[in-house]
Design goal:
heterodimer, A: 315 residues, alpha/beta, Rossmann fold, 2 domains, nine-stranded mixed sheet, 15 strands, 25% strand, B: 268 residues, seven-stranded parallel sheet, 28% helix, 28% strand, globular, ETF_a/b_N (chain B), Electron transfer flavoprotein subunit beta (chain B), transport (chain B), ETF_beta_N (chain B), ETF_b (chain B)
């Protein structure tokens, strides 16, 4: 039996889109075994079953949530020892990559990050150098550990849900770890997470401090709001909205760039989007070189008109 | 009373300038590094180290900021630039056998180099290199050295034996704490890096850069480089240029035409 260990870190107990995508990928490679670094509810087990999970291994206490990657890597190493997987899949998030890095040293196994496809022999495809190259990479030592990018696969349930068996794995006392000592939730925008969104509408220097048109179009499309470095550096929007080399890398189905020139710093974060739309006053902006649909015009006229038209057609 | 002096290591890397096109070589898919600069994101880590050192009286009070790099002869330029900006000393791991190292081999050599510096309190890195962008090396290095790790700090402070930091994400802002010694990666939000000034450039000429070979580090060539890599690139293809799409000039109906385009792509 080919076990594919899938790291499902869900402090709120829900199965998120990126988890569902990972499980769908795992099913194409073997039998998904979920590794959950905390207690699991019946609801979570049932949701895992809808995606064909064969078994669930989990930690028995919730205190791993307060410590950073170290202890989660300890847990995942223990889960690997228990389930002897042929490969380990993690989300390609900052935490996912940090846990993968630690795990790789613990179990002397190679890691490929940023994968967008994984073949049956665990060859992983990824895009490098800001999308300039597509490479196929293989793990030569140990068990392949692969961090997989969100939106790279369509999540699908199985026709007949499985009833995964569950098992706790004790987490050995580990190395010194950083702890979270305080946490303040930010006001929820009600929009999807930038890294997971199917649609991203991003604003840059051209919005000149006013993101309302960008936010309104994002809401009309049910998308997330992104920004260029110029916009976050100017303090017009939070740094966590930044797309690009010093921010997040996104690959949504649709990326709408508004008032962003499209320097390489920004391109690095969005070039692998399926469809790119650009709105910019300057016809010479580099962003038009990579746009599937470009509009030379004033974003404060074009975006509201598009948002109104989209709402009209959707209703 | 002044806080005790710190022994800080900053990882610096020479990378091809991301402003220009970058290429993978045809024969072994490694990155061509002709025109290289200090990775911009490393400057924030160096600045954070210098501020911690200066708050404790700087080099005169025994604070040490070591700029560490690994790579071919030209990689030393990243260290030289760091010394001009204000690092105390440089360390350059350089050996032909290191060519083609993946993150595992890189972290192995860097861990060995850091061990030559005695009791290090803090290892600082940027949030990613601007070339490989895997962000694996800091985590692997922390694991090899048994250090606690804080990633993506946008604020950083050291008091006594504890490092505290702030980290921002989409949904929340967290304060973090780790015991020293620790490894911390910092974002570009943490500070405004200084530029080297004339005095710094002159002073840098007197600072030492120690070169270390694999033999100096007690490592075997089979553990690093392309031979010792845990991962390998089996194929690399330049991404086909994105075909230029339709570009229109707004004549008052561009928003409607955008909706038409999205409907045509089944994106509504």
């Amino acid at each position: 039996m080919t076990n594919i260990l899938v790291f499902i870190d869900t402090p709120d107990g829900a199965l998120h889109k990126s988890h569902r995508e990972l499980l769908t990928l795992a099913r194409s490679l073997g039998e998904p075994v979920a590794a959950v670094p905390g207690p699991v509810s019946d609801g979570l087990v049932a949701a895992l079953g809808e995606y064909g999970t064969a078994a669930v291994v989990h930690a028995d206490s919730a205190d791993l949530d307060d410590v950073l990657a170290v202890r989660k890597a300890d847990f995942l190493a223990a889960a690997m020892d228990r389930t002897q997987p042929q490969a380990v899949l993690l989300p390609n998030t900052f935490d996912g990559k940090e846990i993968a890095g630690r795990l790789s040293i613990k179990r002397r196994s190679g890691v490929v990050t940023d994968a967008i496809a994984v073949a049956n022999d665990f060859t992983a495809t990824k895009s490098v150098l800001a999308g300039a190259y597509t490479v196929d990479a293989q793990v030569r030592t140990g068990t392949p550990i692969i961090t997989f990018k969100a939106n790279s696969i369509e999540a699908e349930t199985v026709p007949q849900a499985t009833s995964p068996r569950t098992e706790t794995v004790p987490v050995p006392a580990g190395a010194p770890a950083a702890r979270i000592t305080g946490r303040s939730e930010k006001a929820s925008s009600g929009r999807p997470e930038l890294s997971e969104a199917r649609v991203v509408v991003a604003g840059g220097r051209g919005v000149n401090g006013d993101f309302s048109a960008v936010e309104d179009l994002a809401d009309a499309l049910g998308g997330a709001v992104g920004a260029s470095r110029a916009a976050t550096d100017a303090g017009w929007i939070e740094h966590s909205a930044q797309v690009g080399q010093t921010g997040q890398t996104v690959s949504p189905q649709l990326y709408i760039s508004a008032g962003i020139s499209g320097a390489i710093q920004q391109k690095a974060g969005m070039q692998t989007s399926k469809v790119i739309v650009a709105v910019n006053k300057d016809p010479d902006s580099p962003v038009f070189e990579i746009a599937d649909f470009g509009i030379v015009g004033d974003l404060f006229k074009v975006l509201p008109q598009a948002a109104a038209e989209i709402r009209k057609r959707k209703s | 009373m002044q806080d005790p002096a710190l022994n800080i290591v900053v990882l610096v890397k020479h990378v091809p300038d991301a402003q220009f096109d970058r290429h993978l070589s045809d024969d072994d898919y490694t990155l061509e590094r002709d025109e290289s600069i200090l990775s911009e994101l490393d400057e924030y880590a160096l600045e954070a180290a210098l501020q911690l050192s200066e708050a404790r009286g700087g080099p005169k009070a025994g604070n040490v900021v070591t700029a560490l790099t690994m790579g071919p002869a030209a990689a030393v330029n990243a260290v030289k630039k760091s010394l001009q900006i204000g690092a105390t000393q440089g360390l350059h791991v350089c050996d032909d056998a290191l060519s083609g190292s993946d993150a595992a081999g890189t972290s192995l050599a860097l861990a060995a180099a850091i061990r030559t510096l005695g009791n290090v309190d803090l290892v600082l890195t940027g949030m990613a290199s601007t070339d490989g962008e895997t962000s694996l090396v800091p985590a692997q290095l922390a694991e090899r050295l048994g250090l606690a790790q804080i990633t993506f700090a946008s604020e950083l402070a050291v008091a006594g034996n504890t490092v505290t930091a702030r980290r921002e994400s989409d949904s929340h802002s967290a304060t973090l704490e780790a015991p020293l010694p620790a490894l911390v990666s910092v974002t570009d939000q943490i500070n405004e890096p200084r530029y080297p000034n004339f005095k710094g450039i002159l002073a840098a000429k007197k600072k030492s850069i120690t070169q270390l070979s694999l033999a100096d580090l007690g490592l075997d060539a089979a553990e690093v480089g392309a031979a010792g890599a845990w991962t390998s690139v089996v194929e690399a293809k330049p991404r086909p240029a994105r075909a230029q799409g339709t570009i229109i000039t707004d004549e008052g109906d561009a928003g409607i035409r955008l909706a038409d385009f999205l409907a045509g792509q089944k994106l509504l």
